[in-house]
From TrEMBL:
<keyword id="KW-0238">DNA-binding</keyword>
<keyword id="KW-0804">Transcription</keyword>
<dbReference type="InterPro" id="IPR009057">
    <property type="entry name" value="Homeodomain-like_sf"/>
</dbReference>
<dbReference type="Pfam" id="PF20240">
    <property type="entry name" value="DUF6597"/>
</dbReference>
<feature type="domain" description="HTH araC/xylS-type">
    <location>
        <begin position="159"/>
        <end position="263"/>
    </location>
</feature>
<dbReference type="GO" id="GO:0043565">
    <property type="term" value="F:sequence-specific DNA binding"/>
</dbReference>
<keyword id="KW-0805">Transcription regulation</keyword>
<protein>
    <submittedName>
        <fullName>AraC family transcriptional regulator</fullName>
    </submittedName>
</protein>
<dbReference type="Pfam" id="PF12833">
    <property type="entry name" value="HTH_18"/>
</dbReference>
<dbReference type="InterPro" id="IPR018060">
    <property type="entry name" value="HTH_AraC"/>
</dbReference>
<dbReference type="InterPro" id="IPR046532">
    <property type="entry name" value="DUF6597"/>
</dbReference>
<dbReference type="GO" id="GO:0003700">
    <property type="term" value="F:DNA-binding transcription factor activity"/>
</dbReference>
<dbReference type="InterPro" id="IPR050204">
    <property type="entry name" value="AraC_XylS_family_regulators"/>
</dbReference>
Amino acid sequence: MYKTTFPIPPLHKYVSCFWEGELVINANQVHTHHAIANSKVELLFCYAGNYVTTGVNGQPVKMPKASFYGQTTTSKQYISTARQNGFFGVRLYAHALPLLFSIPATMLTNQHIDIASLLNKQGAELSERIFLAPSFEERVQIAADFLLSRLQKKPAKLEHLEKRILSVYHSAQHLSICELANQANFSQRQFERHFKNLTGFSPKTYLKISRFESLASALSCQEGITSQKLTDMALDFGYYDQAHLNRHFKEFTGLSPSGYLKRQEVQNQ
């Protein structure tokens, strides 16, 4: 079971969507979630399951029940052996971290941090309310109310930069860093510094991941994709050739294009 809903207008700039997923597996079965590189931040509440990942030194690391999962440049696997698995998530644009929580986005790049460690008592109280809520709709309302309470007036210069970041998320155009800086009324050096603080990435890395996310999203909406169809779609999204596409697939998913598509077919069954 998987549900999604979009935020109310005041949160459109900060929240991509609210979602919930539940999965029941057989006894002695293992569920593996393969997460790919992501420009967004997930505020996740695991109300059922016991997910574990691999740490830097190869040791197993148990995932917190409520935490921020930061924007990432690489893929990672999460494994659960529990029969009942359930998550409620708030998918945030990375600039929500500094603008709503006064946390530099760079703090969460390729990291996951317990919500109570970042937000203290407010984080602990939010987690408790989310876990006690009996339905997806009530969890969404609790999370939305919490985020609305964090809205604040932003400096004008950040308003300009925020618009440029959102234009990258939602535009089919492939703008250069210089063009984005000019649109935001910054020098390129100023733009790159503020951009990294707001998104956790350099503009170059961010544009690469954002383009790949757009392609991955388009692929998820189609079935029976042939090698030629994949190449044609890649060209539409600004990839130069097959070798360019292959490098990004390996970098951001850990898989070849064909391996990624096969995994998607299995997950959709």
